[in-house]
C-alpha cells in the first residue's frame, strides 16, 4: 500500500517537472562529464546545482537547453525533447560565458533580443530589475564586468520565460553586482517563475535556492534543502596548536600539520566550546571557511 502510494506520488511529481534529466550520461572522449544523473526541476522552485569546477554542471545545462544530446538516458523540457524548438519557447538561458558585441549600445542589444519574442518584457522594466538603469546608451564594450554579466543575465528574461537557466551567473562579480543580480532573480521567482542555476558558491545557494542538488565528478552526491546541504558541505576548519586533542563531537576529519591541528566541522562554535570545556591547552586558534573542493575531500577522503 505504502509502496503504491509512494509510486503514484513520485509519478505525479514527475509529470509536473518543467525540466528533467533521467539517468543521463555524457562523455567527452575519455572524460565522463555525467554518469547516470537524474534531476527534476519543479514549477516555481529555485533549484541550485552546486558543485566544484569540472563537476558536470554546464554539461547538465547544455543537455536541458537542447544544445547537446545525451549518450544515455532521457532529457525532457516542458515534456518535450529540448532539441525541439517548441520545447524552448518558454525557456531563457544565460550560458557560463557570453560575448556581447562591444560596439552595440545596451538598448540596441535588448531590442535585438526582444524582436524574437511575441510578448517581451518592456526594456525599462528589464533595466530596472537588473540594476542597469542609466546605462541604456552605453556601448557594451564600455560596461564593467559586473554590468556586462547583469546584461547577459537580463537577456534570459526578455521573453517572459517560464523557466530560466543561469550558468554561474555571479562568478567573479563583486558583492554589489552579485546582490543586484540576486534581486532580479528573486523577483522573477516571487512572480511564479522557475529557476535552475549553477554555482560553486555555497552562499549563493543559501541566498536564493529552495532546493540544492550537489554534483561532483559527474554524479549526484547530495540533494536536499539548503540547511541539509550546508550541514554536509558547509564545513569549517578549526586550526590551533596543541600537544594532544581528546576526541570531540561533530568533527568529520582531523589532520596534523607540523604541530598544528586541523579539525573539519560543520559547527565550529560547538567544537571550540568543547576545547575549552575539556581544558585543551590550545594556542593560535583560527576558524576558516572551507571551499566546496576542500569540503568534498574532507567528506569523501579523496578526489
Ligand atoms: P562544470 O560546469 O561543473 O565546471 P563541465 O560540465 O563544464 O563542469 O565539465 C565537466 C567535465 O567535462 C570536465 O572534466 C570538463 O573538462 C569536461 N568537458 C566539458 N565540456 C567538454 C568538451 N566540450 N570537450 C571535452 N571535455 C569537456
Ligand atoms: Mg560550468
Q: Which descriptors would you attach to this protein?
A:
303 residues, 13 strands, binds adenosine-5'-diphosphate, binds magnesium ion, 2 domains, Rossmann fold, disordered N terminus, alpha/beta, Alpha-Beta Plaits, 4-stranded antiparallel beta sheet
Report the average pLDDT across residues.
Answer: 90
Total beta strands: 13
Tell me which ligands are bound.
adenosine-5'-diphosphate, magnesium ion
- Alpha-beta content class: alpha/beta
The 3D shape can be described as globular
The total domain count is 2
What is the CATH domain class of the largest domain? Alpha Beta
Helical proportion? 25-40%
**What percent strand?**
25-35%
Main beta-sheet annotation? 6 strands, mixed
Order of helices and strands: HEEEHEEHHHEHEHEEHEEEHEH
**Distance between termini?**
42 Å
Radius of gyration: 22 Å
Poorly predicted ranges: 1-11
Q: What is the CATH third-level topology name of the largest domain?
A: Rossmann fold
Number of helices: 10
Strand order of the largest sheet: 5-6-7-3-8-9
Describe this structure in words.
The chain is of the alpha/beta class and 303 residues long. The protein folds into 2 domains: 7-224, Rossmann fold (3-Layer(aba) Sandwich); 233-300, Alpha-Beta Plaits. Helix content is 34%, strand content 28%. The protein is built from 10 helices and 13 strands. It has helices at 2-16, 57-64, 106-114, 123-129, 145-157, 175-190, 202-208, 226-233, 268-277, 292-300, and strands spanning 19-28, 31-41, 46-50, 72-77, 91-94, 163-167, 194-199, 211-216, 219-224, 236-241, 251-257, 260-265, 283-289. It has a 6-stranded mixed sheet with strand order 5-6-7-3-8-9, with helices on both faces. Strand 6, helix 6 and strand 7 form a beta-alpha-beta unit. Helix 5 packs parallel to helix 6 (175-190). The two termini are 42 Å apart. The model is unreliable at 1-11 (pLDDT under 50). Bound molecules: adenosine-5'-diphosphate and magnesium ion (MG). The site of magnesium ion (MG) has 5 residues, from helix 2.
